[in-house]
Design brief:
5 helices, alpha+beta
Length: 136
C-alpha cells in the first residue's frame, strides 16, 4: 500500500487531476503544434474543442468558422485549423486546389464546406477541409 493513502477519494482526485493536466499539456504542446511546426498560418485553437468552440456554443456554424479562417488569412495559400485534436487544412490558392483535386486526390480525404447556399463558377469560393487519410 505504498502509494495509497488512507483516503481513497483523495488518491482518486489526485490521479484525475494529474490525467487532466497531462492531457492538457500534451494537446497544447504536441497536438496543437502541428501547423506551427510546418510553418503554415493557422487559427489558434482552444483546448479541448480546437477551433470548434463557437460551433458548440451555438454562435457560429461550421461553414462560418471556415469562412472566417479563409477571410483572416486571405493572402496565404493555405490555412490550418483544428477539429478537436485533428488538423484540417483550408486551401485558398486556386492552383493548389486544382493540384490537390487532380494529382494528389488519392492522398487526401476531401470534405467541402460551402458558406454560400448557391455556388456559381464566378463565385466559387468553396472551402476545402483536407485531412490526410490513413489509407496512404
Amino acid at each position: 500500500m505504498g502509494f495509497l493513502s488512507a483516503y481513497l477519494v483523495v488518491d482518486f482526485l489526485a490521479l484525475l487531476i494529474a490525467i487532466i493536466f497531462s492531457t492538457y499539456f500534451y494537446m497544447k504542446y504536441v497536438v496543437y503544434n502541428y501547423w506551427s511546426s510546418r510553418n503554415i498560418d493557422y487559427v489558434k485553437p482552444i483546448f479541448p474543442l480546437g477551433n470548434l468552440g463557437p460551433v458548440f456554443a451555438g454562435r457560429r456554424s461550421i461553414g462560418e468558422v471556415f469562412h472566417d479562417a479563409y477571410s483572416k488569412f486571405k493572402g496565404s495559400p493555405v490555412v490550418g485549423l483544428y477539429m478537436f485534436h485533428r488538423p484540417s487544412l483550408v486551401i485558398n490558392d486556386p492552383d493548389l486546389i486544382r493540384l490537390v483535386l487532380t494529382k494528389a486526390f488519392g492522398h487526401f480525404m476531401i470534405v467541402v464546406y460551402t458558406p454560400m447556399r448557391r455556388l456559381t463558377p464566378c463565385r466559387c469560393t468553396c472551402l476545402l477541409c483536407l485531412a490526410k487519410s490513413g489509407n496512404t
